[in-house]
UniProtKB/TrEMBL annotation:
The lineage of its organism: Bacteria, Pseudomonadati, Pseudomonadota, Alphaproteobacteria, Hyphomicrobiales. Residues 6-81, 91-172 form the ACT domain. GO terms for biological process: regulation of DNA-templated transcription. This is ACT domain-containing protein. It comes from the Bacteria.
């Protein structure tokens, strides 16, 4: 029987980190399913989902924990096999001058509408004309069946002026279509 694990990874960035992790996964005949890994502020951070035979999971867990000796901190979590939220997938794009609290305000609106955030990527970069710091975020969200995408857009537009951000919500193409 297969078991799914989610690994959270943090380390000071250096070459070979992915190799260290993937070797341990492969050595325990586990399958690297998907991941999101990146360098953030000099740190290497990410998440990895693996499948492993239930009988091999304790050995894999012990071997991953030993990677702390080479500077990796790895959290190991049994994947909750609950169903994904039902609803309409949409892509959310946010752009505006950087300021504290932007993600908090936007995520609060989404939470109040029971919209689930599946992925979120953000960055702050100098603006092309002014050089002022601009905040960009892209998210894949799931809008529950009882709410329309236009209702979500309206709710986000309600805070857009206060935050001085542009918000765009588009229904996502389902992967594989």
């Amino acid at each position: 029987m297969k078991k799914e694990l989610v690994l959270t990874v943090v380390a000071s960035d250096r070459p070979g980190l992915v190799g260290d992790i993937s070797k341990v996964v492969a050595d325990h005949k586990a399958n690297w399913i998907d991941s999101s890994l990146s360098r953030l502020g000099g740190q290497f951070a990410g998440i990895v989902r693996v499948h492993v035979e239930s009988s091999s999971a304790p050995d894999l867990t012990a071997a991953l924990t030993k990677l702390e000796t080479v500077g990796l901190t790895i959290g190991i979590h049994d994947l909750n096999t609950g169903n994904a939220p039902a609803g309409t997938q949409a892509l959310l794009h946010i752009l505006g001058q950087d300021q504290p609290g932007m993600i908090s305000r936007v995520s609060s609106v989404l939470s109040n509408l029971h919209v689930s955030i599946e992925t979120l990527e953000s960055l702050v970069e100098p603006g092309s004309m002014s050089g002022e710091l601009m905040f960009r975020a892209n998210a894949r969200v799931v809008i529950p069946p009882q709410i329309s995408p236009s209702e979500v857009s309206e709710a986000l537009e309600g805070i857009a002026a206060d935050l001085m951000i542009d918000v765009e919500l588009n229904e996502a193409a389902i992967e594989g279509d």
